[in-house]
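An example makes the point: we let one protein speak, the chain in one-letter code, the fold tokenised, and here it is:
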Amino acid sequence: MMQSEKQKHRGDEEVVKELCLANGVSYENIAQVGSKVSSLEIFFSGFPRMAGLSFFPRLCQFTILGQDIKRIEGLECCPALRELWVVQCHLTEISGLQNCLQLEKLYLYDNQICEITNLELQINLEVLWLNNNCITQIQGLNALQNLKELNLADNNIEKIGHSLDPNVSLQNLNLSGNKISSFKELTLLACLPHLRELALKDPTSTSNPVCLLCNYATHVLYHIPGLQRLDTYDVLSKQVKEAAESTVMKKTMYYNMRVRTAQRNLAEVRLSLMERKKAMLQLPGDCIRTLNHTLKSLEGELSKVPAGCKKSAAASEDGSTRPVEGSIDRSDQTADISRDPAVERKILGKIDALRERLVPWTRRLDEIEAWYERGLTQATHMMEYTVQFLLMELESVGNIRLEEGCSTDPWFTSCCDLLHSRFSHSDFKVRSIAGIKINRVIRIHNSALRLRFEDKLHTLLASEESISSQNYRRRLEYLFYIADPETNSEREEILRILEEGFRTTQRNKALDREGAIPLSNSLSVAEQPRIEHAQRQASQDESKHSADAIHFRHGQIIVSKVFVGHSVPLREGEPPDRSRYPKACSVYRNVDTKHRTAPSEERPNSTKAHTGPECSPRRRQWFVFDHELVLPEYIIYFEYITTGDQEQPHCEGIDDTPSNDIILDREVLNMEPVLKPQPRLLSLDDKILLNVARANVLSQITVLNLHGNSLRKLKEISRLTALRHLTISFNEFTHLDDISHMPNLTFLDASYNRLVTLEGLRRLGQLQQLDLRWNKLTKAREDTAVLRKHTPALLKLDTRFNPWIGSKTVRMTVLGRLTTLTHLDDVMVAEEEAAYAVLMAAGSKINQASLVAHSSTNSDRPRSLSLLSTAQLLCPLSPAPRGLTRELELDWTAKITVLNLDSQKISRMINLNKLVNLRWASFNDNDISKVEGLDSCLKLEELSLNNNNISTLNGLSKLHLLNKLSVDGNQLSGLDASALDRLPNLSFMSVENNCISSVHGIQRVRSLLELYIGNNQISTSRDIYYLKGLTNLIILDLYGNPFVEKLENYRIYVVFHLPSLKALDGIAVEVTECESAKDMFGGRLTPDMVAEKLGHSNYADIAYLTLQSCSIRMVDLSPADLFCSLCSVNLDHNSLTSFSGLVYLPNIKALCLNYNHIESILPRRKAPLTNRQILYSKVHSSGYGQQSPTKGKGETGPLEPLMGSLEVLHLSHNGISNMANLQLSRLTNLKALFLQGNEISQVEGLEGLQQLRELVLDRNRIKALADNSFTAQNVLLELHLAENRIRELNHLDPLIELRKLFLGMNKLQDITELDKLEALPSLTELSVVGNPVTKNSLHRPAMVLRLSQLQVLDEVMVTLEERTRAELLSADPSTCSQCPGASLPTTVINLPGLLPLVPRNIALRGMTISGGLQSFMYGQDHPPSNVDEAQLHSTNKHKKHRHSNAVRNGQADNTFRHVQRTGGLLHDGNRVVITYPSQEQDSRFPNGGKPPPM
């Protein structure tokens, strides 16, 4: 022993010498200089163990690199050590540091350490490097609260967990080169408040699997917003953080919408089940009603026997008793009963038979209720799965996606075929199962699991070169997995498998389960444990009655892709343990289903599968050892179909008509005695009461049976002070106000009425039994409050078959308030149940105890991808540290930031005034009727009040910071604009399942991003216009409102009006929908649009409507009667191609459609119809599609006139080329027509305009006038043809009343063309300026001479002197050329005593010219810019304005005219009236030549 110590000492001496040599320290003087050394280092060799460190007591830094060191030792004498490097050695554990309490930096990378231990004392440690080791789990770091840098790269770590939570000072963390594959693990790093650098895929290491997933960086940056570097990249930029925030916010909003859609689908299923249940209850309910009616009638007759005997005796003595008129005379029958005991026995027998018949019908009601509960439970189960799937998708940021299949998906069909092919009828025959029905298939997309499966498979194939491609595919199987039913956490296990995959062998063993993963290719083999478990549970719980004999009817199975690899048979009696089969990937056993015994014959806990040589290999069970080789791909939800279901396929036979029961009922009802129908009582008086009760005086009546009448009132019934037993069943009572102040009443039967409330019951101190079955009661809390106050002795109460709101909680509500009850709904009240109900009722106030128990003081919302409200998220996670028994601080309420009082039976929001820092609050599922008590909570950001009884939003006006508001499931009838107007930061609002009829008021909340207002009472599409001001709105849910069903093309209608929407009713808005919306609704003038533009919807008050430049393409102002006062419409600068819906406006007088694309009055059909009957059937007598005003072949008459009130029409600048196509002849009352600035080449189609006074055709392409151009214009007064291409003036003869003709800027060259104007006898004004014929102004004398009525020529007055000169000139032929039509000489002729022929142009101002058209509207193609909009829409009457007269400028394009005379076309700001008296004055240019306002 001494020898070995000496050898060790000599070895240590060599080691110390090497250490000294490497660091320049004299070994000989080590005793003197060693205490001065603070740093040592040794590289690569010569230091096999840590020895001789006692010579260096002040050592602060020690570096060892590349040595063959197995463990850390010898540091006991180095208490000052601050930095230690033991790198690239062979360490297998962390040890020997117990005395190094000052250690700040520890580098142990590139070793073989498997576990982090023995660091509890290193509380000053700031840097720890353990990279490149064999660590599989992060642990042992709890004491290192000062740790700032941790390097665990290149280990085998799969999970982070909460192991780093205590390391609150951590700033730099490197986890590269590990096996972290879940985003959930990264989320846990959010609790490190000072983390600034994080590496998960460092360039010097391999990436973690999680880094290969989509949105990896987004997920990390959102959860760790303080991060400055990620994987060596600088992420300090504000834009990077905002992009991550925005992405997560959008995903959260999207999945919140999806979850709400799933919940809404459940509500629809519930409604469908309710309707089906109601239909199924109809027959049993009717039968029970009939049986009960007869039963109560017989009981009433039987109860009257004693009283009847007395009454009969009294009547026989004095003979004074007579039946009251209209009353029920039962005395004869009752007397017969009293005299014949046999009849009484028959009544009793019939009563018993009726009660027996009630039993099967009552049982049937229970079966229907059980069927409903099963269906609802299953639907709820599916909805919860859907919600969990969506949350899983959200938390994985889309890397786990669960796709719902439908029949059009090939993979869905393949899954169905697979399951059906693996179902064997013979396996389930003993259980009467005939088949399976697949209800749902979910496809699992898990990127991390798929990458892990493929990597493992490639690694395995690479190591086994003998496996060919063909053999590899043969070893891939699709196998079934069923969650272990014994764990009672089926959902949790399935969700875990979908997210993380199957458990490893070690984890399964730790849970006392088989180490390998059990799978099967047979449905019966996979399902056997679940079926046996369900049957055992059913046999143990025999007390619960279930109409469904198949307790395992609904199942779910995971279909996985499995690489079974090298698989060997499992030896008999051996467990599937990998240690027994080291070279196998899996083991299997064949299952003999032919020889399997029925479950009832096996031992209850037996799970042994039967094997035998006769088994088909298709019945096989596998046990796979490696969980990475099992990839879950589908989850299938199915149900078993029994042979009974096939025979009775509807609702498991529940709703089949039980004809035999009806026959039995009829037989019992026809048993003797059969009571004769009695007349129904409609009212009561004293005589009727005495007769019915068989009594002499009212004070003797103790029993009164008024069953089976039509009573609605019981006036003065309280006078029956002795009454003890009252039956009023089968009447028509809605209230019980008359039943009050009856001190002796002990029994009241009010079943089978129409009671909606118990308000009115008063002072029934002795009432012990009350029957309220089959009424219309809904409010349990209010009604039980009445009973608690006025029936203190009540023992038995029956409230069944009422439409209670919240029916599941009715029993607890009643028992919590009526503590005297012994029986409720024919069920005895247990003491424990009553005590619990009282306890629940007592905890219904907000007090100090409830605030302490349900509050938290967190200052920040956890950065978690969760859809829970902040209050729900924070309170369960971080409950308040204050205990109920501890003394509270004085300002403890001021520290509360979170309050979660969900489901606390709260009726009032009180004692909240001191919560001045409250930020997040939830009061869901209570009985709150009013929002109050929040005036001091000025910092509130989120408020949830779902499922209460709130009817108004008053009480929120001071919550200016409120960001989220949820008031689902309440009694709101509208949105309080005054309250919403003061919520400037509200971005989320949910008011689903209320009674809201209009969204008026919501337009005040311009910051809104999400609005959920489904399942309300919104019935008009006009409400969409209130939402148009919400320019930030991206998610809207209106599902379940009446107008959604009524409005045609609802979805694209909403998308059109709210272009910012990204999702509507739970479905994303597609680009194609936006395009369809623009095509269908773009430019559609509707009453809603009018209301939006004008700011009101008083359509009957609108006289003038101006909507210029609004991109209107179609007019749909229906019903037209709404606009009965509208007389003037201006739709200039729009995109109309026809008059569209304007033709239906009843009183329109002036219509301005300049600068549109009008082609015809009515829309033109793309293809003409060949069958005229189809045309007339669609548009009766409208001439729809008629493009020519002339009669075609086969036509029987002219087109029917339209717009009989229209007098002024403006169609300038519409690109019109064919007047005939316009169908203007149908406007028979038209008096002024303006068509300037078009492409018209021929004047036609005016045959029907016989009242036309003014026609403007300036600036067109007219070359000549046809013989039919003006055939019907006998009263035309003014014609404008300026700026055309006219060369000849023919066919003007019909215009005998024409006063003004404007032909300027045409192609008239010969003065003989002007001679043709002599055919116009009434012409007073003519303009031919700009024509070649006027080049030298020598046409003027001729025109003055020939047109005797002419007063104005070319805008110049014709004077008397000029006319005389023309006559003299005409009398001297020498001055003219001898040739007819020759031009006048260019020399000016001056005659003595006369003015020059053409002295100068005289501007006409302020002069009155007789004749001409008077009209009211402005004369420019563009309305003036200074038009007062208020005057355009004004409906107030103003005084008429007198306008100065002016002569129209020949180049101006005046359009609207004004009549100054009484009865003319007046514009007074309100009304337009057009008349044409026999003598007109020209007032075409009022307001000094400016157009008047419309």
